[in-house]
Amino acid sequence: MLDIGPLELVALVVLAVLIFGPDKLPQMIQDVSRTLRRIRQFSENAKEDIRAELGPEFKDFEFEDLHPKTFVRKHVLDKDELGLKEIRNGFDFRAEMDDVGDVVHGRGGEGAAPAAPAAPGGGPDLVKKPGTLAPGERPPFDSDAT
């Protein structure tokens, strides 16, 4: 819960003894534990009141399901009605992006397609890097891209 290690726990106990003293420390521990118990009881009562107000349709409602990660895990990933796990496992995104990068940069490699010819209609060749423009020359305009 709090992720406190043994050394940190010892340091907290020593610090508590130094601050409160050995005579007041037991009373402080009782007060803190009583307060925590009341907070837990208040929380449980509030949850029960909410469940009672929601009615019998929500008898299986859990407040932990409202956390976004739990909600997605329960309703999207566990059911997998659309076969998302199969699609996700069958698609190697990194390999696909490497192939696209090879084509764009004109590198030949396994699975890389040959460089594309110039675009039809005399548009700019997007596979090759554009050269520098002469002073006063306008960059190529592709009406389909705008």
TrEMBL record:
<keyword id="KW-0812">Transmembrane</keyword>
<feature type="region of interest" description="Disordered">
    <location>
        <begin position="102"/>
        <end position="146"/>
    </location>
</feature>
<keyword id="KW-0811">Translocation</keyword>
<dbReference type="InterPro" id="IPR003369">
    <property type="entry name" value="TatA/B/E"/>
</dbReference>
<keyword id="KW-0813">Transport</keyword>
<keyword id="KW-0653">Protein transport</keyword>
<protein>
    <submittedName>
        <fullName>Sec-independent translocase</fullName>
    </submittedName>
</protein>
<feature type="transmembrane region" description="Helical">
    <location>
        <begin position="6"/>
        <end position="25"/>
    </location>
</feature>
<dbReference type="Pfam" id="PF02416">
    <property type="entry name" value="TatA_B_E"/>
</dbReference>
<keyword id="KW-1133">Transmembrane helix</keyword>
<keyword id="KW-0472">Membrane</keyword>
